[in-house]
Each structure stands twice: as C-alpha cells, then as structure tokens.
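Predict both folds.
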Amino acid sequence: MFKIFLLTCSDGRVDPAKALNTDTKDIFYLRTPGASTSAVSKKDNYITDKAGLTFAILDLNIRKIVVLSHSDCRAHKSLIKVTNGYSKDLSSGELYLAQCLKQRGYENPHMELRLRQKTECEGMENCELGFDQMIEYKEFPSIEKDKLCIETLKGGLLSLSRLRSMCKEVLSELSEDDIKKIKSFGDMLNFELIYDDLNGNTHHIFNMPGIKIF
C-alpha cells in the first residue's frame, strides 16, 4: 500500500526508498529535473502533477507529501551558472536543465517563498524568519551549506509550497462522494522537505503546515 507521494529529482543517484527508510512499494513517485514543478495551472507539467496528487489522495489514500532534494544537483547548479552569466561553461544538456527550472520560476525562489509565506501557509504568517532564511540559519552540521546547497533547498521549499497549494485546489474540487470515499483514511495531509547529501545522510529539513481534508 502506498504511503508517500514523492517529488524528487530525475538524478539516478538519489535513492528515495533508502533516504526515506521505507520500501520502494510505499512510494508514489514523481521525478523531474531539480524536483521542480509549476505554479501555473495552464502549464502541462502542472496538470500532470495535479493528476498525480489527485490520484494519490483519492485512489491511493496517501496522506504524506514529500519533496526530496539532494546535494550536487546539476539542474540547480546549471541554473546558478546561467543566472550569474556563465552560460558558456555549460553543455547543451545543462543549458536545457537551467532553462527548464528558469521557465518554472526557480530563478529567484526566495521571492515567491516570501509571498507564499504571507498568503498561503496558515500558522507561518508571524514567523520571524522567511522560509529562505530558515534554511540559512537553521543548523545542520553535516550539510556543507554552499550557494548550491542553499539554492537547491530553497527550490525544494518552493516545490513543497506549490504542491501544498495544488493539494488545496484538489481538495476544493472534491465531491461529497469523494469525501465519503476517503474519510476512513485520515483527515490530514502532511508536507515535508527532506535533503539527501548523497553520502548516506538524510536530513529532515522542514515540515510545512498540514491541511485538513474535511
């Protein structure tokens, strides 16, 4: 039985089952470059992600949504180089990775995160630090927090926040029959950002406020 809806990177070095300390059969996967998704409902990848979430909530009875980011992410590394004017250092494939993330709005994730903190996450409005600052100031001794790490984590938080918004949209469209169908499987959706340093260490970075289903 599936337990987790997981958005993670396409990078084959990431082993979600190991990182989450669970069985592969427990995870409903969505893999994209840089663990990215779209905030725009008319975009094809948004529709695909929403379809996956709807199926996970209604048919697989999943109540845990996880974004798994990782160290040395080529997608985010390429985006940083493009943003800083080093496009010539990239291969054609890396340029496509960067353009993918750029098109999906990951060039300045802190800007959208600040907006989302104010408007979307109940219980976070009065937080002293923004989501992006939390990552920089919170202590994770075994993580080497260079620019790539920080930007990758900010991107992961942005993805989690977007998935949370997507879930709210899915839940708002449920029929009475849908609600009756899923009532016995728990009334709360939970959201978590996890970071894999690819050295056998997994870090539970952030739990975003959950959503009551009914």
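Second protein follows, with its predicted structure tokens after the sequence.
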Amino acid sequence: MLKGRFWIGFVGVFGFLFIFNWLVHGVFLKGLYAQSPNVWRTDADMRGLFHWLALSQIIFSFIFCLIFTKGYENRGTAEGVRYGFLIGALFVPMNLGWYAILPIPITLVFAWIMTVLVEYTLAGMILAVIYKTPEAVAKPSPSSDETQPLP
C-alpha cells in the first residue's frame, strides 16, 4: 500500500519535473529547437496536445517514486542523488540515439544529456529529503574507537 510520504513525494517530484521541463525546453533551449523547426510540432499543435505531455509527466513521476520506494535504504540525501543520477544516466544512450534518427543539432543532444542528469539527480534528492526519517538525521554513525574494546 502506498503511504502518505509516497504521495507527497509524487506531488513534489511531479511539480519539480513539470516546472524544470518547462524552463529548460520552453525557455532555455528554445533557440536550439528553432534550428530544426521542421522536426517539431508548432506551438499551436503543442498546446492542443498538452494533456498528453502532462499525462506522460504524471506517469513518469509515479514510476520514478515507486522504484525509489522499493529500494529505499534511508541513507539520506546521497541515496536520492545516486538514484536520480542513475535514472538520468539511463536516458543518455537514448538521447544519443535521437541524434542518429532526427536531423537535430548535436548541441541539442548534449543539452538534453546534461538536462536529464541534472533534472533526475535533483528529483532524486527531493524524494530522498521527503522520505528521510528523523532517525536518519539524528543518528551519527559510530566511530571505530566506539566499536573496538579498549586494551
């Protein structure tokens, strides 16, 4: 059963991904997309299909959070950073493949690669912060002096 933290994490990840993608693709990379206008839909077409874009983000966010919870070890923010980076790394070969398929600038592909690595690393960090329990924050790990008996 999916608990409260899952749903809070899902909303947090979805909100972050939605805003991040809008900023990256709708603002920062707009000039790179303009270099290959025949490849992309018009703005009017995109607005008409916006519900599909939102649905894809909802589904991705749900699965992203579900996979994280199945392997969650309560190791803090670093766990989320590692998880998010590895998920982002899964997209690197796919983005390279798009260069072979679509007539797009290689700079756009490299921008996509950097974007997914940063985007999913941050999303994983957000999820880890939401999932972190108070014990994980307050418990320091024992030092080697504390675990060895005195001579």
